[in-house]
Amino acid sequence: MTGIRVEITGAEEAIAQLGEVAARLDNPTPLYDEIGASLVVSTQARFEREEDPQGNPWPPSIRKLVEGGRTLTDTAGLVKSVTHEASREGVAVGTNKISAAVHQFGATIRAKTAKGLRFRLPGDNDFRIVQQVTIPARPFLGLDAEDEQEIIALTGDYLTEPFGGADAD
Known about the structure:
two-stranded antiparallel sheet, 14% strand, alpha+beta, two-stranded antiparallel ribbon
């Protein structure tokens, strides 16, 4: 067999730490779990700022315009449902709320019959009847520049932890 072979002797602590790093790389689930938790916090902060991952403000909801409050947080069900799931292969951040896709991507809801869609607007007792309603996209899932930097920092910390962490001398 041709190649290069390096044999290290007398450096048991260094070899042990390299073994720890190799084990971490073999199962990065804890790293993905840390990244997922960080992304959940970042996503929840977007609800506070009412903006998409690029920093663009969400179009305000009619309820917010009429009654005040915040867009997408009337009951806070959506923001509270944001979670993550980590595995050896990566991490997924999302929600199980059925309305999430409508808010993330926007949607046009069309009446199934000629009778139209019937609903009340906030602060109004009269019913509206229309053939369609367009809900604008208000993206909340995704990575921003700060998320990318946090992922880099978490990865560095994860890989250097056996050596005393990123702040070690």
